[in-house]
Fold this protein.
Amino acid sequence: MGIAERKSRERAEREYRIVAAARVIAEREGWDAVTIRRLAEEIEYSQPVLYSHFENRDAIVAAVAVEGFQEITAALREAASGSSGPRNALENVAMAYLAFALSRPALYAAMFILPTDLRFAEAGTRPELRAAFEALAAVVTPFCVDVAVVTETFWAALHGLAELERSGRIRPSMRGERITLVVRAIVLSGSSSPARGSHHSVE
Amino acid sequence: MGIAERKSRERAEREYRIVAAARVIAEREGWDAVTIRRLAEEIEYSQPVLYSHFENRDAIVAAVAVEGFQEITAALREAASGSSGPRNALENVAMAYLAFALSRPALYAAMFILPTDLRFAEAGTRPELRAAFEALAAVVTPFCVDVAVVTETFWAALHGLAELERSGRIRPSMRGERITLVVRAIVLSGSSSPARGSHHSVE
DNA sequence: CTTGACAATCTAGCAACGATAGATTAGTAA
DNA sequence: TTACTAATCTATCGTTGCTAGATTGTCAAG
C-alpha cells in the first residue's frame, strides 16, 4: 500500500520545510524571530502540528544545527582537498572554518551557542558532529602525535576566533594574521614530540 | 542638603541589589530564571522600578557582564603576579582564565554569550573590557612583537577552550594538555620574529 | 497647618511567547 | 452507510518583557 508511504513522505517533507523556514528566518532576522507561531504560519499549518514533529523549540534549533554540522564538514573537506600540502591544508581549513562561521552566523549559533542537548566528547555523539571533528583532525594529523588533543585545541582556537570576531571583540582586519599564528603553532607543535619523522617540515 | 544625597545613595544601593540578585539567580538557576518579575520580588519593589534603573533586561545582563570583566581582570593579574617567570605567568593566566570561566558559567555567559551591546575593539569600548584585554596582553608581551594580534589570538584560544569544554564538546580531562599546547605555541611564536632578543627562552 | 506641585511608586494591563487540552474534521475499514 | 482512528484545528493556559495611567509619598510655599 503506497498510501502510507505517501503520507510518511509528505510528513518528512513538511518537517523539512519547518527546519528550512527556521533557518531562513533565523539568518534573516535572528533566532528570536523564530517562533512557533511564525513557523506555523510559514508552513501553513497550526502551531500544534509542529509539536508532532519536534518535542519543543530547542529541538528545531538542534535540527538546524545538525544541518550545519553536515555542511561545515563538507566545507572543511573541500578546503582541505584543494591544497598544495599539509601546511597549506591547515591554512585553507582554518580560513574555511572562519568563513563558514561568519557568513552564516545564525546557523553557527545553532551549532555552538544556542542551548541544545547535542553533546560531543561522549558516547551517543551524533555522527554529524563526529564527522566535523574528523574533518578537522584530518588536516592536523600530519603535525602531531596526540591527534585528539591537538584537534580539540585547534577547534577551540577557531571557535574562539570566530566568536570573538562575530561579537566585535577582536579586529576583523587582522583575521589573516591570527590564522597564520594558529597555523604556525600547530606546525611547530610536532617539533618537540619524542618520536617523530620529518613530516612537520613539509612545504 | 543631605537628603538628595541619601536618596541617590539609596538608589545606587537598590541598583546594586538588582544586579547582585540577577547574578545570584543566574548562577543558581540559569539566565532564563532571571525575569523582571523575579528580580522585582527579590528587591521588594514592583516591576516598573527596574525600568527606572535599566532600559531593559539586556542592560541588566550587561551590568553583570561589566562586573565579570572587573573580576576576571583581577583574577588574571593575580595569577600573573605569583609566577616564577614569563612562561609560567602565561601558564598560570591561562589556567586562571579557564578556572574563572568554568566556575562561574553564568557570569561568563553574560560576558561573552548573551546578547549585549558591549563592544571591544572599537572606540567607546568600556574601560573594564580594555583592562581585561590588557591583563592578557601583559603576559603575552615578552614573547612577541605584535602584541595586539597575539593577545587577540591567545584570548580567542582561551575563549574557545572554555566554551567548548563548558558545552561538553571537548574532554574536560585533557584541559591541562590543551593549555600546555597553547602556552608552548605562544612561547615559540616569538622564535621567528625578525628582530628579537633571547627572552623567549626564559624558563 | 494646609495646600499644591512634583517625584516616586504601584496596580493593571498589553501583546507575544511556548506549550497543551479537547473539539473537530478527514480518512479508512467493516 | 457506519464506526473507528488518526490528523488537524480552535481555544486557552501560564509566563514573559514592557508600559500607561492611577496612586501614593514628599516637601516647599502660603
Summary: Confidence is low (pLDDT under 50) at residues 192-203 of chain B. Chain B has two domains: 1-54, 63-201. The interface with chain A takes residues 112-113, 119-122, 129, 146, 148-150, 152-153, 155-161, 163-164, 167-171, 174, 177-178, 181-182, 184-186, 188-189, 192 of chain B (CB under 8 Å). The radius of gyration of chain B is 20 Å.
